[in-house]
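During the reporting period the student researcher (J.K.) took over the structure-prediction task from the postdoctoral fellow and processed the backlog of single-chain submissions. One of the processed entries is reproduced below for the supervisory committee.
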Amino acid sequence: MSRIGIIAAMHVECEFFRDRLINTKHSQYLDIKITHGLWAGHEVCLLESGIGKVNAALATEWLAREFLPDLVINTGSAGGIKAGVQIGDFVFADRVCHHDVDVSPIGFDFGELPRLPVYYSIQEIWVKLLEQVITDQCQTRYHVGTIASGESFIYHDHQVIQIKSRFDDVIACEMEAAAVAQVCHLHQLDCLILRNLSDVAGDNAPTNFNQYIEQAGQMSTDLVLTFIEVINPAE
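J.K. obtained the following structure tokens:
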């Protein structure tokens, strides 16, 4: 493998990558900031997409057409909704879904768009390798399950209850992953979704997000770069 695309939504989720990638060059597509660089024998292209599924889809489409990645990694922060998760934990998606898609009145399941699946599965080989890396080298708490995406900051009890009633094993919510996975699915590209929890659903979530977003960006960067280091550039 030689080309790895990384997508994160916010400046604070990207700045640590920009500080550490070598031989960097910068450009822009629409409102998306692009950084080309090198890490551990791989070509890396980092996109600061902006928040939300439309921005994430634009960034992923640009990567698919212009960078031709072997793997797309979507990273940054997320809000935990699984019982027992804590700020600072990692969440790894074995599949992702759109929690705000509802075409059920005309015969589709919640989260399902015509001709597309409800869940976008992540290849097990990447999830297992990520688990191996975090166990051997980072030893930080992590959870594997469904990550659900939508165009809202999720923290109210009624939001969490509704999402959990419609989708199985949801461990966290955020606003980009399912769009990244959907575009990768259509282009037949491998993707990997990993996030660090900046907040956990509840009344304090907005405050905690602002307090811990930088920590989540730093921890996500460290894990992603460590993960890239164990991938053989010749693969």
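The committee noted the following: Residues 3-229 form a domain with the Rossmann fold fold (CATH 3.40.50.1580).
J.K. will present the remaining backlog at the next meeting.
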